[in-house]
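Thread: "does anyone have the structure for this chain?"

Original post by V.I.:
We have the sequence but no experimental structure in hand. Need at least a predicted one for the grant figures.
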Amino acid sequence: MLVVAAVLTAALALADWWAVGTRRPGVERWAKPAVMVDLLAVALAAGALDHPAGPALVAALVLGGVGDVFLLGDSEPRFVAGLAAFLVGHLAYVVAFVRDGLDHPALAAVGAATVLVALAAGRRILPAAARDGGAPLGSAVAVYMLVIAAMAVTGWATGHPLVAAGVTLFVVSDTLLALDRFVAPRPRARLAVIVTYHAAQALIVAGLLA
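Reply from O.Q.:
Generated one for you, tokens below.
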């Protein structure tokens, strides 16, 4: 069952990437949430509920799926709702990493460095978000950035290479998304965002449950 679910997840991810890359919103509407549903099935088949970090991991995947559905629309209310879902999902990942054990605190510095590089690359994100949506949106984006920074630091501190790669890709994905939405549209940005996002989620699941 685990192998079947993993293969199906990969196939659905490829379908979603194709839909994004070729601008086929009809396919993306079902493929994007289906990827997270099947990745959740992978986690459950791999014994997530028997793992100390499992319940928080499951919660993070569910919230990621909810965020994906909200982000299928372009309106600001849907974006804010998606932002909120992912913010709580990142907090769930922090809980999962803590439950797994932060046994390599020295590696947290690498996670912090990753965040600093992303902040430097995305230094125009907060001013642009505040300009577009006022103080409420600017504040929401700032809080989100703090939470994903915590996820990156704690993910690295677990000492799992796959988890570390996953949280790093999550930082990359969210930075690209924010630059594309708030600063300036970039060619193929949506494709880069979804590929790094799916890879991030899969790597975290594999790293925690391997």
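V.I.: this helps a lot. Residues 125-157 form the longest helix (33 residues).
O.Q.: and The two ends are 16 Å apart (CA to CA).
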